[in-house]
User: Which sequence fits this backbone?
């Protein structure tokens, strides 16, 4: 009989796709991880239970799991604000994993918002199995594949687009990051907005983040700040930057402050909000 410890988990994911388990765990346990938060993800607990994951694949320590919750709170707020400005908005989650933002924000966004997602084929298969009534239309593609945005662009039908890249950019190498930004801008046009989390290069390329040990995935790029991220590809400009690490707790806030002092103001980890300028779009 095979050793259960060597049995592949039921989700069948490895490497970067397996990193979706940690934020899913964080959202499922948000009330415990972030006392006093109003954030809730009613679907997350059932979803993570049904993935068939093994405990060692998920970073259940408070700092990493709570960080995923704080990141979700920031991105939910940016999404709700974009939808308030654009009731006909399209929200496209690049590397959507098992995110359930469309359900979480159903009462905070107009019913006219169109929800789209993109992820690798194995993730899309799992998502369709676990979320048969999915509110989000999801396309199977890698976000650096040629033409990955063609399907979402056709589905967007010229509406204002907010692209969300949650826990994604750090796994792209510099060329892949540039390709993703270029294709997002060319596919969806001027005025497209992007909200994405990033690590400073000293953190991203240090090889010490525990999620890399849990999943075998590797961080390949980082950015000093939102302006540096915008300069990665032509036609993007930084709109705002939102702290995440500082929200986790006092120790993280102090560590982030020390990091900023040593790097002349750069954050170790944050969410950048970018906008595509005119020219080069559809």
Assistant:
């Amino acid at each position: 009989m095979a050793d259960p410890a060597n049995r592949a988990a039921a989700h069948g994911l490895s490497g970067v796709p397996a990193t979706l388990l940690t934020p899913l765990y964080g959202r499922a346990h948000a009330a415990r991880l972030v006392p006093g938060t109003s954030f809730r993800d009613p679907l997350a607990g059932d979803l993570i239970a049904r993935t068939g994951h093994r405990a060692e694949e998920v970073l259940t320590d408070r700092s990493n799991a709570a960080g995923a919750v704080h990141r979700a709170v920031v991105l939910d707020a940016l999404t709700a604000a974009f939808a308030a400005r654009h009731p006909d908005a399209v929200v496209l989650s690049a590397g959507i994993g098992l995110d359930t933002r469309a359900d979480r924000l159903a009462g905070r966004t107009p019913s006219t918002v169109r929800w789209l997602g993109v992820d690798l084929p194995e993730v899309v298969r799992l998502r369709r199995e676990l979320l048969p009534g999915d509110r989000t239309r999801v396309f199977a593609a890698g976000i650096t594949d040629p033409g990955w945005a063609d399907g979402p662009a056709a589905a967007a039908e010229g509406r204002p687009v907010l692209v969300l890249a949650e826990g994604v950019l750090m796994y792209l190498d510099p060329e892949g990051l540039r390709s993703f930004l270029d294709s997002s801008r060319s596919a969806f046009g001027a005025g497209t907005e992007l909200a994405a989390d990033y690590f400073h290069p000293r953190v991203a390329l240090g090889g010490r983040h525990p999620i890399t040990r849990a999943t075998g995935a590797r961080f390949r790029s980082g950015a000093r700040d939102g302006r540096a991220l915008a300069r990665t590809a032509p036609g993007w400009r930084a709109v705002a930057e939102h702290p995440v690490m500082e929200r986790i707790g006092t120790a993280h806030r102090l560590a982030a402050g020390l990091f900023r002092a040593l790097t002349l103001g750069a954050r170790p980890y944050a969410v950048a909000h970018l906008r595509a300028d005119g020219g080069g779009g559809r």
